[in-house]
């Protein structure tokens, strides 16, 4: 039971940080899930996050995996509700208000100002997960290869991730 | 505005309705749920927003492309994932709060169930086979590359002025070097950036502060 309250508190809080994308919340998720609550180890969290990149739908559905890991199906349900309800209600409210905010002069300032900050948060998240993942020359090369191919071709990343699973299977065992 | 209450005692599927207020198409809650469920189940490889645009604007013609882009700009400023926020805003336009709820449920359900199954399988696999950990290591490296490529693509569009790069650097330093909480960094650097681009320094349509 205590676990469930912990899950609700952690994921409701994390949802507020996802400005610009789910990745923005990753550093804080690492701190809370791994260091504070000891629900799983850092490599385990990275593995779940990475598998989540292959799942369809919003790119943070891996949180359902964390809930499942900690407290079973109820944990998964609780985590998803805690993660999507607070920001969802806020979005619903602002969405209806938005037209009236059209002439509010700060609206453009908020959009313009938060744009670079959200890029910074994405990059910070990538650095945080990279610290746990890029443990050597091999993994750094895989990462750079995937990044370069995606930038050059804009292909669907799924086959690349699958390819890296196969390469990793032979390379890292 | 978009909070159009359903007429009393008329089931969603009944065709006899008054002329629609606004230009919002008549879509039943079931259709909304199924529409978003399909996108939630097929949007492999990230970039769910692109799948949403194809499905909602192109195939189903539920909203105009202009509206889609306007809603997207709201989502990008607010906390919450773009994909789930878009589901909420489009669902709200189509059928009010209930529409938003079923749209959100639809888009989250397939990935959520898949991740539950993945977590169960992962828990069961712990310590059984070194190959699984090795493959996951490869997947993780690819995932970091994916996140980096998304960051660079967004950055190319967004980072125009030197101040933008300064705000990116301050954010990264706050989180990764000073190890401050993301919330604190978001509030401090966010406020700084919004103040930097305050209304009297932001000419309409221009980028120069």
UniProtKB/TrEMBL annotation, chain A:
Alphabetical UniProt keywords: Cell membrane, Membrane, Transmembrane, Transmembrane helix
TM ranges: 69-94, 114-133, 139-172
Pfam families in alphabetical order: Chromate_transp (PF02417)
UniProt keyword annotation of Disulfide bond present: no
Location in or out of the cell: Cell membrane
Membrane topology: Multi-pass membrane protein
InterPro entries in the cross-refs: CHR_Transporter, Chromate_transpt
Keyword Glycosyltransferase: no
PANTHER family hit by this protein: CHROMATE TRANSPORT PROTEIN-RELATED, CHROMATE TRANSPORTER
Family membership noted in the UniProt record: Belongs to the chromate ion transporter (CHR) (TC 2.A.51) family.
Name of this protein: Chromate transporter
UniProtKB/TrEMBL annotation, chain B:
The keyword Manganese is assigned to this record: no
Protein name: Chromate transporter
InterPro entries per UniProt: CHR_Transporter, Chromate_transpt
Keyword terms, alphabetized: Cell membrane, Membrane, Transmembrane, Transmembrane helix
Main localization of the protein described in the UniProt heading: membrane
Composition bias, Pro residues: 1-10
Membrane topology (UniProt): Multi-pass membrane protein
Organism, as annotated: Xanthobacter agilis
Top-level taxon: Bacteria
Subcellular location: Cell membrane
Family designation: Belongs to the chromate ion transporter (CHR) (TC 2.A.51) family.
Transmembrane segments: 32-52, 101-124, 130-152, 164-197
Annotated spans, Disordered: 1-21
